[in-house]
Every structure is written in C-alpha cells, then in structure tokens.
Amino acid sequence: MDILPYLKLMVQKNGSDLFFSTGAPPNLKAEGRTAPIGTTAMEPGHVKQLAYSIMSDDQVREFEATLESNLAISINRLGRFRVNVFRQRGDVAMVIRYIKGVIPNFAELQLPDLLSELIMLPRGLLLIVGSTGSGKSTTLASMIDYRNQNATGHILTIEDPIEYLHTHKKSIVDQREVGLDTLSFEVALKNAMREAPDVILIGEIRDADTMQHAIAYAETGHLCLSTLHANNANQALDRIVNFFPDTAHRQLYSDLSLNLKGVISQRLIKTPNGGRVPAVEMLVLTSYISELIQKGDIHTIKEAMEQGQERGMQTFDQALYQLYKEGKITLEDALENADSRNNLSLKIRLDEGGDFAAQTGNSAMSLSG
After folding, report:
1. Which of 66, 71, 188, 332 maximizes the CB count within 10 A of its CB?
2. How far is CA 290 from CA 255, 295, 297, 298, in A?
3. What is the CATH number of the domain that holds 35?
4. Would you tell me the crossing angle of helices 249-259 and 287-295 to the nearest 10 degrees?
5. How far is CA 338 from CA 14, 79, 309, 331, 359, in A?
6. What angle do CA 336, 354, 273 make, to 5 degrees?
C-alpha cells in the first residue's frame, strides 16, 4: 500500500487530518468535518504496513518498544506532515496531520483588523480561545506571521504539535515541538527566558503552572500568546481562575488586570456555499475592563463588552448579528451558535421590524474524488 495518494488528496481538499484504523475506511477531515475516503475498510495489518513504510528502522524499533511513535515527514512538492502511530484493539492505527507552509493573512481569514494592532504590542498576554476545530491555531499562525513580516526580533514558539511552518522574515522564528525538540512543555517553558525571545507562543494553556509562566513572561516585558479551550471570554477567565486555589485568586486577578491585553474567542460558522466564516468575540483590556478583572467581577464583563464596540470590542452575538446582516450566514446558523438565542432573536426581529420563524434543519458535507 502507498501512502502518497492519501496525502495528495488531503492537500487537494485542504484537509487537516487523515485517520487510519482497522475495520474502517480511511477518513479525511476537511473544513471541520470528517468523511470516509471510499467504502473499503482497512484490513488487519494494512495500517501497520502504511505506517512502517514511512518510518525508519529506529522509529519502528521505538514504536514496538513503546507502542507510541511521533514523527514528521516531508514530501517534495507536497508539504510536511506530522504522524502519530499508536495501537488500539491489538492493531496499529495512525493519524496524519497536514502542516501547512502557506499561512493565510487576516483578510483571507476574514478576521478583525484589531488583531494587527494587538500582535504588535511590545508586551502583555493575548489569549485565543475556542473549542477544538474552531480555527485557533490558524488565527495564531496568522498573527505570528503578521508580526514576523512587520517587526524585527526573536519569536519563540512551543507547540504540540507544530501546525504551521514559519520562515524567517523580519524576525527570527524558532519553533520547538514537544517530543521532537524538547522533552515537555515544562522543560521548554523553564528554558524559554534563556533564549532571549521578544514574543513567546505557548501552544496551549492547560494548567496553573503554564498559566503562571505566561503571566511571568508578560510581566517581564514580553508579548506572550497562547490558546485555551473555552467558548468565550467569560468562560476563559473562569477557567483560568479555576486553575488556582481560592487563596491565590486575589493575586491572580491583579496579575491579569495588569498583564492581559486581549481575549480573542472564535467559532467557525457554516456559510450557505459550504464554507466556513469566523464569528469573533473581542475582549480588549480597557481601563474599565481591567478594573472589573481586578475586582473579580468577571461576570459583568460581557455587558461592558456590549457597550465597548467603539474600542473594537464585540460579543459573539454581536459578531453573529453582523455576519447575518451581511448575508454571510443564515438565520438558523446565527441563532444556533448564539450565546443567547433569545437575545439575538429579539435583536434581529426588532431590526427587521417584524416577526420571523427560525428555520431548522441539518446539512452534511461529503468528500468526493
């Protein structure tokens, strides 16, 4: 069996991941949706054969000893791919991720212009939050690339895995992948300051220790960016607070009020033509927002955001409303993704001067060719 046709298809379809598992056809994930490639299931031993065809002898030996293997492969004129090989139900399984070398810009991603201001800040903490598959990594890569094109300095990234490859432009960009270039996030974070970065990207904040490092980098004059799994800015702040014991909350609120510069939350919404468009919530740390955080009044922030549109701030529902008014998304999808369906429904009804019925229905995407 040859892996190359699958990799070519993934690139052609602008896919993100390939899944190989015994008993199921290979599956391709593109535009956030996973669909089978054909109808023929992988037979026992086929995935192992595919995996071993792209592994070195040393990698095969390591895999057979540890039952896990992470590697990267480069295919001429096609690109770079991150491969995870593992065992499940007594057989070999494999997931391949496409590491994209071409990084889309803000306009191509339809992201707010305010991001170009935030990424050029000399210091502070910026968080990009959203669920899995919401485009956080792409937004982060686009922000880093903008900085790379427009400012000199040293950009250091710590990722697991690397999803986009950056080239040196005005800045030097060093990308460290956990498992390949460093043993762990913890080790890389402890050594980051010795590498004299101006900008530090932490792939994801998952615990209090990583959060403390991010705050410390911002406090010491660096711009630190990271992602967090949360649905919106309020939930992100709640999650950060819950990383720490109650006794640490007062100091944490103070640290965040002084160092947090923005929280960018996004969701990818279906468009009528089968694509996706980001709905982006923007929390910018004005003096008033900073004061609310310092007091621990996190749950009053959303109301302040609704009143702060002149600063570039907007809630998810405001972003969805604008996308709907521009005809980029349907009414059904706007309401389905709203934080407050009733409030957004009322806003649209009042704006349109009459009642409307929210249509419901499901749509599915399939891959062909």
Report:
1. 188
2. 10, 9, 10, 10
3. 3.30.450.90
4. 170
5. 28, 37, 18, 11, 15
6. 40
Q: Which domain holds residue 196?
A: 106-314
Which three-class secondary structure state does DSSP give residue 86?
Answer: strand
Reference 56, options 44, 80, 73; nearest CA is: 73
- Domain match, 190 and 66 both: no
Q: Are residues 189 and 212 in the same domain?
A: yes
For residues 144 and 237, membership in a common domain is answered with yes
Distance CA 105, CA 34 (A): 25
Average pLDDT rounded to a whole number, residues 188-195 = 96
Backbone CA torsion sign across 176, 182, 186, 192: negative
Query: 61 and 37: one domain?
Result: yes
> Mind listing the pLDDT tens digit for each residue in 241-269?
999 999 999 999 999 999 999 999 999 99
Q: Per the structure, how many domains does the chain have?
A: 2
Indicate if 128 and 167 belong to the same structural domain. yes
pLDDT in tens, 205-214: 999 999 999 9
